[in-house]
Amino acid sequence: MHEIKLPQLGQSVEEASIVEWRKHEGDPVEKGEILFTVQTDKAEIECESSASGILRKILVEPDMEVPVMTVVALVGKADESLPDLSRYGAGTERTATPSKPSATQPESATPSAPAPPEPSTPAQQPTLSAAETPGARAPVSPRARKRAEQLKVDTAFVKGSGIDGRIMEADVEAYAAQVTCTPTARKIALDHGLDVTRVTGTGAGGKVTKGDVEQALATPAQMAAAPHVASGEVQRVPLTPMRRVIAERMCASKYSAPHYYITVETDMARAMAFRAGCADFKPSFNDMVLRAVVLALQQHPKVNARWAGDALELVGDINLGFAVALPEGLIVPVVRQAQNMTLKDINRACAELAEKARNSKLSPDDYAGNTFTVSNLGAFGVDDFTAIINQPDSAILAVGQIKDRPVAIDGGIHVRPIMKMTLSSDHRVIDGAVAAQFMKTLKGILEDANF
């Protein structure tokens, strides 16, 4: 009997919860075939079977958080005797039979009957389903997830019709059919976690256009977000693994690192002209900021550093983290060795990582090893803000929107597209003069469009 273990998912991942099993007990499984998916604090990851045979026993049910290297299932021959399950912390529940439906058969909302729980074991007491638990993330079937990717649908807004609120392929299609959108409008809405069914369309036949989505994003009240809470009611929303880790890490960073802040205003006129002149690709303004950060860090390597307790570590590679907002929380994919990339390379890498983040396809290596982070809230109409350092970095750059503002130039008043940037620095590592010099260099690169 072969033991299937929850694999190591990166140096920073100590435990994870299984989201769904792709196979049922009794199903045949091949080595290397996707057997289950897990949710870490940052991403959903597909895990392969390490053996071929029959899935004889599932030892860890979905939504149970267990340490890495825990035995989660047993794979063996159909007639092979099961070992004593108590050694795995399991009881003597019903074992597998080959008669259950395969994961490759047509999708169905009707599962096999579950084994009755043991009343004496607290962990087996009846609990609320995902559909009944406030704030819980509904499970998504593989076919529904694939269809959502095709239709550019955010499953956070889809109501599942399957057991325990499971989102099925038909649910995704029904949601997408509720409103007609231009492809650009649907993509922008997906990128920013916006429920398009709550956006009023001004296009032909009520079609939602790019302008409608941008207007909705600029109006916080229209952001598809929190469920209705009646007057006098207090709704308890359980913490997801991602939300728990965000809270722990942000508190640790704010308490341990003495933050200070430097803000500059940047004239983006030349950068806008540069972007308009790009023929073979269209970089975002965030791509341009990231490229400018790389060039500035190369001139000021003391900013690309970290606190090591008894020393300061200057890091040779520039690994840029950039914040991506998801319905479940904030995630920071990392563009590795950005010092070796052109603006076009950064544009492509960011697009690929952001797409993987939205589809929960990031691997642990995709969001680890950052040396500097950029958080951009300009798309939400934010002028300027301060960000908490994303450790182990020693600095994070907060970027606001580009907005026409009156400025004094050579004794005259002119209207210029101004973007505010604020650098949060760890004073243990970066002195104020160093941060100021870095921001001066960064401002100059952007204003000269020297990418």
How do the helices and strands line up, and which of them pair or pack?
Blueprint: E1 2-5, E2 15-21, E3 28-29, E4 34-39, E5 44-48, E6 53-58, E7 65-67, E8 71-76, H1 142-151, H2 169-177, H3 183-191, H4 210-217, H5 241-256, E9 259-267, H6 269-276, H7 285-299, E10 305-307, E11 312-314, E12 320-322, E13 324-326, E14 329-331, E15 334-335, H8 343-358, E16 372-376, E17 395-409, E18 412-426, H9 432-448
Helix pairs in contact: 1-2, 3-4, 7-8, 7-9
Primary descriptors:
451 residues; alpha+beta; OB fold (Dihydrolipoamide Acetyltransferase, E2P); Dihydrolipoamide Transferase; Chloramphenicol Acetyltransferase; 3 domains; 4-stranded antiparallel sheet; 18 strands
Explain this structure:
With 451 residues, the chain is α+β, with helices and mostly antiparallel strands. It has 3 domains: 2-105, RNA polymerase II/Efflux pump adaptor protein, barrel-sandwich hybrid domain (OB fold (Dihydrolipoamide Acetyltransferase, E2P)); 142-222, Irregular (Dihydrolipoamide Transferase); 241-448, Chloramphenicol acetyltransferase-like domain (Chloramphenicol Acetyltransferase), CATH 3.30.559. Helix content is 24%, strand content 22%. It is built from 9 helices and 18 strands. It has helices at 142-151, 169-177, 183-191, 210-217, 241-256, 269-276, 285-299, 343-358, 432-448, and strands at residues 2-5, 15-21, 28-29, 34-39, 44-48, 53-58, 65-67, 71-76, 259-267, 305-307, 312-314, 320-322, 324-326, 329-331, 334-335, 372-376, 395-409, 412-426. The protein has a 6-stranded mixed β-sheet. Strand 17 (395-409) and strand 18 form a beta hairpin.
